[in-house]
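Extended Data, panel c. Modelled sequence:
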Amino acid sequence: MIPAEIYQKTVLSHFAPIRPFLEDPSVSEVMINGPDQIYIERKGRLELVNARFSSREALMSALRNVSQYIGKLIDEEHPILEGRLPDGSRLEAVMPPLNPDGPCVAIRRFFRETLTVERLVEFGSLTPAAAEALSACVVSKINLVVAGGTGSGKTSMLNALSGFIPATERVIAIEDSRELQLQQTHVVQLEARPADPRGRGAVSIRDLFRATLRLRPDRVVIGEIRGGEALDIVQAMTSGHGGCMGTLHASYPRDTMNRLETMALMSDVGLPLSALRAQIASGLQLIVQVSRLQDGSRKVTHITEVVGYDSSAQSYVLQDLFVREYQGMGADNRVQSALVATGRSPSFLPQITEHGMKLPLEVCSGEMKGDRTRT
């Protein structure tokens, strides 16, 4: 493994063809499809750029530089590389023979500036009323997940919501690869570790989560729920560890519940399905659904309460508190939409009141624009 200071000095020289994009704050992702084709994402839209690597070997040399620093092998037996650049940007690469046309690389940019809820309101991703409601939920230790598709802004939203956590609380964050930028001073950030080339020394998110519960957390934040640790998280939610937060990949609130259930089934605990579903519905209280719209903008599309589980109908009962309504495309080719309160009062309102918080009047107006759904 090469020293960090040498890595920092050499990596940008190896990535010289894309260095301008790695230093451009408006670029959110760089995608390399072999040495001759490079795309970037700017403001949610893909652009083909003129940059090129001089050869396949030049691109491989850059990837070997990354692999040496993080202590991983890249060869025919290890053709997938996951790592970080010096600024924290996440790199994922798939090498030949899995990709015969040359290494395929995606670099998700890491931004030093933490996105705040106030900025999200300015962008139109949230409304002031929705932001106020989410603030009350976070302070009141409502268990929530931020769900969405790839590149929809899940991590940015989780970072923003963490700003509502009271400064007096101890927060422990667990991630596969460090991306969270939590806004508190008392934060312990833990990172999972893959096995070495000989298959030794792996530490999973699930291992870290179990250790975390003995580290006296006031809050546990999971960068991404992606496997059997989902069951441990749900059980923690139902056993007094309030205010758990995390992200997962799902496109709609109903899909979020089904995906969480599927991941919980990946654990080695043989719970009956009915008992598992009841635990999930009891532990998870709120879903913040985000999406990247057709025009590339990232918006909150649903803020949905998990009301419970209907055993007779074998379905989760969900209730939308906010829903995004669409009015079509504007003259500037931007999606015209608004995040609207449904007027339904959440069943966890007593918990909000217990913590001395209030929901905005729009949430509990009684002017219902949505119905409970079952999935």
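The first strand starts at residue 27 and ends at 33. This feature is highlighted in the accompanying rendering.
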